[in-house]
Design brief:
Layout: E1 8-11, H1 21-36, E2 40-45, H2 55-67, E3 77-78, H3 83-95, E4 99-102, H4 106-113, H5 138-147, E5 152-155, H6 157-163, E6 168-172, E7 190-194, E8 203-205, H7 213-223, E9 228-232, H8 239-248, E10 255-259, H9 279-284, H10 289-295
The protein binds glutamic acid.
Length: 303
């Protein structure tokens, strides 16, 4: 008989700010999922954003999670140590002609669509890439590379979907219900259809780093043997890109649990960018763990 695969999930914060209560909730959700399934909870530091990631934020992540009572196996996977893995995967996609170099700046992209008010946007609200540099003769590409201007690598979505001819879907383990308290009840995973074409030619390697979030996340989840990706609903739409990359790179497809995002009293979702204060402030102000937990939604608190 085939042995059941061990359940492995993870928390994958980016060290570009202090963790806020939403991160605490996400980490606790993942750790609880692992505990309930008698599996493992892993930590991964997603620090590919070299312009914004800072070592003291990484240190802060370890301290904050430790204060929450969480434990994880060492060594922790750190994305900035894995650029060679991302480069090798990109080379595979290049060999299949599924990615192309793109020199367009943000300004070039905006200029290309400025007279088109109805230009399509992706599910995250960004304008679809208008295809600049997609169909460039090889000689011109070589010349531009030789000239040394920075470029990123984009997925040729049409070609990629041609290679993966089957319909894509994934298993979502979180089923929203009437009240948050009810989400504790056992709800079977749902199969969700995916349409990666809605995102167009996404960036797989940025101008400044040899990967992008999308490429790194699928390679790392596979390398860590993750069977359930636990993360916020803000990343649910991007699962379409991730499942497509898993197919193109021949990686196993995990299940997903996209939990709700925490909001402040005005209904705005918490974010580092908006400067929402870290929960380390709360503890430095003397709040106890049970008081912080009480601020979180069920199953941890009543917040
Ligand atoms: N590093 C991402 C973040 O901090 C999370 C990525 C993921 O869980 O897939 O928002």
């Amino acid at each position: 008989m085939k042995e059941a695969k061990k359940f492995i999930t993870r928390f994958a914060p980016s060290p570009n700010g202090w963790l806020h209560l939403g991160h605490a909730y996400a980490a606790l959700m993942a750790a609880k999922a692992a505990r309930d399934a008698n599996g493992s909870f892993l930590l991964r530091i997603e620090d590919i954003d070299i312009g914004r990631a800072r070592p003291h934020f990484t240190e802060g992540i370890y301290q904050d999670l430790d204060w929450l009572g969480l434990t994880w196996p060492e060594p922790v996977m750190v994305q900035s140590t894995r650029f060679d893995v991302y480069e090798a995967a990109l080379a595979k996609l290049r060999a299949q002609d599924l990615v192309y170099p793109c020199w367009a700046t943000r300004g070039d992209i905006l200029a290309a669509i400025q007279d088109k008010p109805d230009w399509q946007r992706d599910p995250d609200g960004a304008p679809l890439y208008p295809g600049l540099y997609r169909e460039l003769p090889e000689s011109r590409r070589k010349k531009l590379i030789w000239e040394g201007k920075p470029y990123c690598w984009r997925l040729d979505m049409t070609r990629a979907l041609g290679v993966v001819s089957q319909k894509l879907n994934y298993r979502e383990c979180y089923a929203p219900s009437e009240t948050e308290a009810e989400t504790e009840a056992e709800t079977p995973p749902q199969t969700i259809p995916l349409d990666p074409a809605l995102f167009g030619d996404v960036v797989l390697a940025r101008k400044d780093v040899p990967t992008s979030y999308h490429l790194a996340v699928v390679l790392d989840d596979a390398a860590q043997g993750v069977t359930q990706v636990t993360r916020g609903q803000d990343l649910q739409a991007a699962t379409a890109i991730h499942v497509l990359l898993q197919k193109l790179l021949d990686l196993p497809q995990p299940d997903y649990l996209h939990h709700p995002l925490l909001r402040d009293v005005s209904g705005r979702r918490l974010s580092k960018q908006a400067g929402d204060s870290g929960f380390r402030n709360l503890r430095q102000e003397g709040m106890r763990l049970d008081e912080v937990m009480a601020l979180l939604p069920p199953p941890f608190g009543q917040g």
